[in-house]
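Supplementary Data S3. Sequence and C-alpha cells for construct A.
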Amino acid sequence: MAKRVTGPEIEKLIQLLAKVPGLGPRSARRAALHLVKKKEQLLGPLADAMGDAYAKVRICSCCGNVDTSDPCSVCTDDRRDNSVIIVVEDVSDLWALERAGAMNTAYHVLGGTLSPLDGIGPDDLNIKGLIERVGKGGVRELIIAVNATVEGQTTAHYITDQLGGLDVKITRLAHGVPVGGELDYLDEGTLTAALRARTVI
C-alpha cells in the first residue's frame, strides 16, 4: 500500500479536482500541487471565486442557462430577437454559440438528450418548458442545435412531433464539411450529410 505523502486537506483537494471533466488523478495531482505552491496568487482567489459562485449561481427558470440572476442575462437582453430560439443540449453549447456570435437570439437548454438505454426520458429534460415557451406565442422559428448523434436526432424528432400543431418553423443546424476541412480526412457519415445538405453557389 502506497504511503500518504500529503495531509488530508491536500488529498481531498486532489480527489475533488479529479472529478472535474478533463482531469484524471495525475492531472489533478499536478493542478493541486500548482495551486498549493501558488497559494497567495491562485489558491486564495480561487477559493473566494468558488465561494461566490456557490452562493450566487442560479439556473435560469426560463431558458436553463447558468448565471447569477434569474432570469439570466441572455433572457433579459432586450436587444435579442426573442422570436427565434436556439435549442441546445447543454449550457456549454449555449456558451459556444455565443462565442461564435453568429446570431443574437434566445436560447433553450434541454439539459441532455433522450436516451432510453440510460433511462433518460422526456420528463428528465427541459422539453416541457420549451413547449410552454413556444405555446405562449411570439416564436416564429426554433433552431434545434443538438449534437449529430443518435440520441440528438431522437431528441430533435421528439421535439418536432410535440410541436406539430403549433405555427412555428423548425430548423436544425447543417451537418457536413467543416470550414477548413479536407474531404480525404472526413468520415463517410459526414460526407453523406454534406452531399444531402448541398447548397446552390
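Construct B, processed identically:
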Amino acid sequence: MDEAYPEAGILTRDSGATIAYHQSPGKHPGVCFLTGFKSDMNGGKAMEMEALCRERGHAFLRFDYQGHGQSSGAFDDGTIGLWAEDAIATLDALTEGPQILVGSSMGGWIMLLVALARPDRIAGLVGLAAAPDFTEDLIPDVLDDDQKATLQRDGFVDIPHCYDDEEPYRINKKLLDEGRNQLLLRAEIGIDCPVRLIHGIKDADVPWQTAHKIMEQVRATDVEVQFVKKGEHRLSEPSDLLRLRRTVSALLDQLS
C-alpha cells in the first residue's frame, strides 16, 4: 500500500464501537469531511478534499460512522444522534485547533449538530446538498400507504435507491423516531461561523429549497449559497469537485 495512504486508523469509543479513519497532519484550520447516508470515507468528494489539504498543507480527517464503511456496527442500528456522537468523538479525539467541517447530504445535518455541540472548535462549515431534518421532512413524503403500513408493522421498509446501480435504502422506524430529537430547521440554528452551501437545482433527493432554509435559520451572517443549475444530488462530477475545491480553498484563505 502507498505509504502516503496507510491503512485506516481505529478510534475505539467508550461503548467499544470502533471508528475507522484516515488523517493527514498539517496546519490549522484543519478540514474534516462528514459523509452522507450509507456512504463511506473513500468517496470522491472526501478524497478530493484530502488531496486539496495535502497540497495546501492543512490537516485533514475523514472517517466512517458506525455501520458505515470500515467502522464497526450494523447500519440498521444507526440513528442521526448516534452518528453525530461519532463525529463529535472523532473531532475531540483526533483533531486540535479550529476545524472546517465539510458535510455531504446527511453529513450536512451532522456538521450542523457538531457545530452546535462544539462551537469553539468549528471555524467554518461547507455543506454539499446538505440534508438536515430529512428523516422528518423528506422520507415520509416518498412513502406510499403500503410502505407506511409496512414500516409500522415490521419496524422497517425498503425503498428503491434513486440510482439504479445502488441497493435499496432500508429505512428503520427507529431512525425516523430518533431523528425528531435532532431537528434543526424549525427554529434559529445558533451557529455563528461562516457557512457555505452548494446545492444542485436538479437534486432529486433533497430539494434545493433546503439550502435556502438553512441560510434563513442559521444565526451567522457570513452565509453564502451556490445553486448549480444542472447539479444533481451527488455533486461528484469533475466540475462539481472543482467548485468544491474553490469554495473550501476560499474559506481556508479567509480563515487562515
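The beta strands are 9-12, 18-24, 27-34, 58-63, 99-104, 122-128, 156-159, 169-172, 195-200, 223-228. The radius of gyration is 17 Å.
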